[in-house]
Structure formats: C-alpha cells, structure tokens
Amino acid sequence: MHSSQLHELIDIAAEIHKSKPIAYPENMALRLLNHQHIFVLPFLKNSDFHLDTIQNGLQELALIYRHDAALKTEIAKVGEQYLSKGDTLLHGDYYPGSWMTKANHTYVIDPEFSFMGFVEFDIGVMAAHTIMITMNIDCLESIKNRYPKTLNANLLAKVAGIEIMRRLIGLAQLPLKRSIEEKKLLLEMARTLILI
Length: 196
Fold this sequence. Notes:
- The structure is a single chain.
- The longest helix is centred in the last third of the chain and has 17 residues, at 153-169.
- 56% of the residues lie in helices and 7% in strands.
- By secondary structure, it is mainly α.
- Strand 2 (99-102) and strand 3 (105-108) form a beta hairpin.
- It has helices at residues 3-18, 28-40, 58-66, 69-83, 119-134, 139-146, 153-169, 180-194, and strands at residues 88-90, 99-102, 105-108, 115-117.
- It has a single domain (3-194), classed as Aminoglycoside 3'-phosphotransferase, Chain: A, domain 2.
- The protein is built from 8 helices and 4 strands, in the order H-H-H-H-E-E-E-E-H-H-H-H.
- Strands 1-4 form a two-stranded antiparallel ribbon. The chain has a two-stranded antiparallel ribbon with strand order 2-3.
C-alpha cells in the first residue's frame, strides 16, 4: 500500500467520522455477529474450525494465543466497548474488502456494519491491514499523525492487534500470502499491541 493511498483512506474515514446523524440505528444484530467473529470465536480454546486446513502449523500457533488469559482479558474489554454506544458514526468494516479503486479514485463500499462507536475501531482495523501488508507496525504512528483528531493510542493499538489476530486465526480468513513464520511474527506483533 502506497502512503498516498493510506492518506486518502485516513481522510475518507475522518470524513465519515465527522458526520453527525440526528438518529442512527444501533445495528445491534450485525454488531453482535461481528463481535463474535472479532472478539470471541478466534480465541476459543476448543474450536471446530481446524486452522491446519488453511495452512500447516497454524493450528498449533493459534493455541498459544487461545490459552493466553491476559491477552483474552484485554480482548474482552475492547469487545465490551465495541458493543457499547459511542458518539461517532463508523463504517464498521473498514478494511480492503470495503475499498475500491477505479481511475485513481478510491471508493468505500459496504457500510452495512456501520454504527455509532469509537473512532479507534475503524482506524485500528485499517491499521491492522496496513501492518499485515507491510509487516511493519510503524504505520501506527503515521496514521495517528495523519488523522485530524486525537486518537487514544492504546485503544488504537489494541484494535489493530485484535484485527490482525482474528484475520490470522479466526473464521474470517483473508487470501493473505504469508509464510507460517511471517504469520508467527504478525501474531507476536499483535499480542504486543493488545497488551500495551
């Protein structure tokens, strides 16, 4: 991802976040579904979804994090905040599957998960995918500096870490071409971000 693309995505998110709807649906049914896929299912000790069908060695790697009580406590806290009512309109699924580029224009699609929440959720999800693309967490600082309002750095990091983990060891797998060693490194980065 080029820095100009990242800047444009941050700017689009900021525009969405500036919207002040008079009333907005809670969208709780989809949020509860998303909550399960982000904060619960990837971290179940006993899951019917065997990750070695995705990539050999991934199941064993996942078990490290599925048995990490401190990690799961932090994830649960962010999950509670995700379900609480916020004051900012969010896209709710701000990742590459919701971005389209055509003729040097970027479009954001699929707002069905939108809700009133906290800005660090959208920005953290975007940051997670940037980290997975670049294999570098330094983008968090660039994102914080570009976003026009102050972000809670710890919450941003936690959301980014959770999104990385759920995309690597959860049900919502991506067509991510990474070796098992690279995924191990990404999961270690993610754990560090969550436990900041």
